[in-house]
Hints:
This protein is mostly helical. It folds into three domains: 2-287, ABC transporter involved in vitamin B12 uptake, BtuC (Orthogonal Bundle), CATH 1.10.3470; 311-534, no CATH class; 606-666, no CATH class. Helices cover 72% and strands 2% of the residues. It is built from 27 helices and six strands. The protein has helices spanning 2-32, 39-56, 61-84, 93-114, 141-163, 165-175, 177-182, 187-213, 217-221, 223-233, 239-259, 272-287, 309-329, 332-357, 365-379, 384-402, 410-429, 456-479, 481-491, 493-498, 503-529, 539-552, 557-576, 581-595, 601-624, 626-633, 655-666, and strands at residues 130-133, 137-140, 441-442, 447-448, 451-452, 531-532. The strands form three sheets. Strands 1-2 form a two-stranded antiparallel ribbon. The protein has a two-stranded antiparallel ribbon with strand order 3-6. It has a two-stranded antiparallel sheet with strand order 4-5. Helix 14 (332-357) runs parallel beside helix 18 (456-479) and helix 14 (332-357) packs antiparallel against helix 21 (503-529). The longest helix has 31 residues, at 2-32.
Amino acid sequence: MSEFISYTLIGIFTGAAYAIAxxxxxxxxxxxxxxxxxxxxVGMFFAFVYWDFSQxxxxxxxxxxxxVLLLVAPAFGVFVQRVLVRDLGNAxxxxxxxxxxxxxxxxxxxxxxxxPAAGRQVxxxxxxxxxxxxxxxxxxxxxxxxxxxxxxxxxALFVLLTRTRIGTAMRASVDNPDLLRLxxxxxxxxxxxxxxxxxxxxxxxxxxxTPVIGLQYYDLTLLVISAYAAAMLGKLxxxxxxxxxxxxxxLAQSYVVGYLQYIPFGNxxxxxxxxxxxxxxxxxxxxxxxxPLRIGxxxxxVSAPVPSFxxxxxxxxxxxxxxxxxxxxxxxxxxxxxxTAATYGIxxxxxxxxxxxxxxVSLAQFTFAxxxxxxxxxxxxxxxxxxxLATLVAAAVGAIVAIPVLRLTGLYLALATLGFAQLMDKLxxxxxxxxxxxxxxxxxxxxxxxxxxxxxxxxxxxMTVFLVLIAVAVIAVRRGRLGRMLVAARDSQAAxxxxxxxxxxxRIGLFAASAGIAGLGGALYAGLRGTTVSADFMxxxxxxxLAMAVIWGVTSVTGAVLGGIFMMYLPVAQSDHPSIAGLLFxxxxxxxVIVGRDPNGLANKLxxxxxxxxxxxxxxxxxxxxxxxxxxxxxxxxxxxxxxxxDVEDPAESAQEEVERDVAVAR
Length: 667
């Protein structure tokens, strides 16, 4: 009985910390409609700040707590709201997710840059003082303080939101900000206050949990998964249900940790306690009622280009030729990097299909790549059959993921895929099913029709060929009827529903195809490297992938190719310049925040500049060299005059009109 009481008290303490974090998340979302996926990273960063003030600078713990919670954290929250996420409340969910993912990456980079990895300890409040309950049950004052603070936060938020003019203004700013302005309210000021309070609550949760789980970059950042799970029970609006969810989550996690040893196969699922919040999150997302045609995806793009096969073929052939030249001129170590860029480009092409064309945000693409790598290694068939089987396994997993979340869109769908990624990381990749707790898996390089691509240069050229083929396949989808249907569904699900299109099967097929492409990239990566480990496919990589894809252009094939190159270069630059490794993450985060509002990315801007140059160069060429002017304009040549190197402009007919025509013809 004493054991059960101990686990219950630990669960209440854990749930109280989760409740504090989740309440801050609910407050910011319910007042601004911006979901802060960086909430856990905020808690992590200010836990480091608290440690710096109290342990490194010698400030008293109580004073450091006041400075962090009442000065530094609120100021940062106001800065984020006023500068980084202002006016994102009505933006597509994909945009707000990418911007907050950029904040998450930037905070992790800042923490690693300011406080390099080292063993750090944060003592508990009243460390060493215990409270004895009965003869066997002991709790700490730190745990008691956490539970008391959780109750105080709950009461304070209830009073703030229901008994004060500021709280009324917060609720009104969500329902009708324009009406609030008519009555003299200031929605932006209210939003800034909400973010200040929410940031302080994230910092408080991080500080309270640090003595228990340690001062780590990623463990504290993933605190937000538990906050998501609790907040989702209240549908991101109800604080009472959020607290109920947090307590239920804390108790469940504590009981699983305590009693897992008594389960016959408990030693094989040691990662189960870590994924209890994820399981809770996915179950809540699937079971809670959703609107059947919910809005909130990556939409509102000015022009989704229809690529040209001719131009794609020219540039794709040029890319293959370049890889052949590099194969003769570079060392194997450098060719490994080129091949890695090609595999990353293939994985990013899966995002072009799913997010750029279909409008669905996935935070699990590297997980699907990991499935492909594991399947390729396990099948042990280094040929096209093994590659096809690995691709099909990844596609099947993608379809299985899509089926239970058919009703989810936008934010909820993105969180469900993030939950799936963590489940795979803890329960599959780190068990005997895949990598057997960190052990590497070996994989041989491909043989095609008896020709073995054993050399690094040969294999790099082969992967470049695969990259070009997948790019052309994605282009073919976009140019066809299916591509027009995807874009139309992205822009308006309701309109497609009225035309009689079955969006459910379309989404399942889209997820399967996207996962299959990512799995193909993972299988090729395994063959390139020879061995892979579970760390190669951590779900944090999927966040980096999304940020990089959006920075370079998630709506274009060119953006995927460029994104793959820079995704490869990031760890190389960190290894070559360890003194600024964290700063590179900060720059990536800043880039995601700046460019994240435009899913067309830098690729569109770069080639838009090309069009600007050609518009001014053409008159001079036309006057002096008429033939060269025709080539510059792309007439009689396969070279594009403007737009992406693999993209041309849309025809006048919109995707929606084309879908209506296709449906009419089918009838």
